[in-house]
Amino acid sequence: MSAEQLKTAWTDQDTKALSDTLAGAVASALESEAPKDMTEEQAARLRNALSSALAKEAVLDARRAARRFFEEETKREKRAVREQVRVDKVADSVERLSLHIRVQHMILFSSCILLIVTGLPIKFHESAIAAFLIDIMGGPSVTRILHRIGAIALTFIGVYHIYYCMVFKEGRKTFDLLIPKLQDGKDALHQILYFVGIKKDRPLFGRFSYIEKFDYWAVYWGMVVMITSGYILWFKDWAINAFGKYVFDIGREAHSDEALLATLAIVIWHFYNVHFNPHKFPGSLTWLNGKISMEEFKEEHPLEYEEWLAAREKGGDS
Question: Among residues 220, 212, 223, which one has the least CA distance to residue 259?
Answer without folding.
Answer: 223
